[in-house]
């Protein structure tokens, strides 16, 4: 049974991340993780809003700020001892190939690639500004 308030769309949950160097982060996320630019709205070095797609999934990206209502509610990982209160989980076809590409691009691997007890294979890493990501082949929709 669908959630009563869920929109009839491709993906109803879209993580949002903020970066000090958002344009550089967008390039890196595309090169290292395989995201594709869906839309990027920027003035100079300030990214007001960007949408990066990965299959049927998406993340939204923007530049950090401390002036806006939203900006005052968030911290960057380095402001919290590199701890994250949330992370993105991305389902990939081949976790080994994805791991190799991300590692070659400079992703900091924090949990090494391994078969998981619940199924699939995956790993955890940090991006260039410390955001935590999980990439794995386990698909809860097919489990």
Describe the structure.
By secondary structure, the protein is an alpha/beta fold. The protein has one domain: 2,3-Dihydroxybiphenyl 1,2-Dioxygenase, domain 1 (Roll), CATH 3.10.180.10. The chain has a 4-stranded mixed sheet with strand order 1-4-3-2, covered by helices on one side. Strands 5-8-7-6 form a 4-stranded mixed sheet, covered by helices on one side. The mean pLDDT is 95.
Notable characteristics:
single chain, 143 residues, alpha/beta, 2,3-Dihydroxybiphenyl 1,2-Dioxygenase, domain 1, 4-stranded mixed beta sheet, 8 strands, 15% helix
Kindly summarize this structure in a few lines:
The chain is of the alpha/beta class and 143 residues long.
Total number of β-strand segments? 8
Tally of helical segments: 2
Total number of distinct structural domains = 1
Largest sheet: 4 strands, mixed
In helices, the fraction of residues equals 10-25%
Shape: globular
CATH homologous superfamily annotation: 2,3-Dihydroxybiphenyl 1,2-Dioxygenase, domain 1
How many angstroms does the end-to-end distance come to? Answer: 18 Å
Q: How much is the radius of gyration in Å?
A: 16 Å
Please report which band the strand proportion falls in: under 5%, 5-15%, 15-25%, 25-35%, 35-45% or over 45%.
35-45%
Under the CATH scheme, which architecture would be assigned? Roll
* Sheet/helix structural class: alpha/beta
Strand order of the largest sheet: 1-4-3-2
């Amino acid at each position: 049974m669908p959630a009563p308030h869920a929109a009839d769309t491709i993906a109803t949950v879209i993580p949002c991340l903020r970066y000090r160097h958002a344009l550089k982060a967008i390039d890196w996320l595309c090169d290292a993780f395989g995201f594709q630019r869906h839309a990027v709205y920027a003035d100079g070095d300030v990214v007001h809003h960007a949408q990066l797609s990965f299959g049927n999934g998406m993340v939204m990206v923007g530049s950090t700020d401390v002036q806006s209502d939203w900006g005052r509610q968030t911290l960057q990982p380095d402001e919290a001892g590199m701890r994250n209160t949330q992370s993105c989980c991305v389902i990939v076809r081949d976790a080994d190939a994805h791991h190799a590409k991300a590692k070659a691009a400079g992703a900091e691997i924090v949990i090494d690639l391994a078969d998981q007890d619940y199924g699939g294979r995956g790993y955890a890493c940090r991006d260039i500004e410390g955001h935590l990501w999980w990439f794995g082949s386990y698909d809860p929709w097919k489990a």
